[in-house]
Amino acid sequence: MPVISDNKDLFERLTNQLRAEVIDTDEVRLCLWAVAEIKGNCELYDSVLLADTVFSSQLTKQLEAALQSHEYFGLLETLILFCREKVLRRPDLPESAMESALFAYFAHSGEWEFSDGTLLVDWFYVRMPALVLSHLQQQ
Predict the structure, then answer these.
(1) How far is it, in rounded angstroms, from Cα 105 to Cα 32?
(2) Domain housing 62
(3) pLDDT digit string (tens) for 10-54?
């Protein structure tokens, strides 16, 4: 299932909404950058993202919620994991500036800590690398 392509209209609407936001925060800037870049590279992301992860299956709801509420934190977490999966699955491609910025924000913003027990931290450091490794070993 093409996770990004199936939501291209929502990505476009969200891009427009983020550009029009009055509040200029790191969260809004990073979401705009990530949404625009992922949408622009949807074929690449569709080719590497697994549709059966909890984050992929919730993408439509995350995009719709962000459009309705103008709250972007949950979507930002999902986008961080999408970029993490892409980087792990395609080590032959250089990490983009946007991906580096997302990962730096994740590591240094203070929102998450390595041992905080959150779902995002668990998926970023443990589950996503294990899932990718498992799929690579099956190929």
Answers:
(1) 14
(2) 5-138
(3) 999 999 999 998 888 999 999 999 999 999 999 999 998 876 777
| Residue 136: φ, ψ to 5° | -65, -40
Give dist(CA 136, CA 31) in Å, integer.
30
Distance of CA 31 to the CA centre of its chain: 9
d(CA 127, CA 29) in angstroms, rounded, equals: 27
Task: State the total domains in the chain.
Answer: 1
HSE-CB of 122 using CA atoms within 13 angstroms: 6
Residue 24: which residues within 8 A CB-CB, separation 6 or more?
none
* Alpha carbons 22 and 40: distance in angstroms, whole number: 24
| Nearby residues of 115 by Cβ (< 8 Å), 6 or more positions away | 121
Q: Which two tokens stand for residue 29?
A: 């800037």
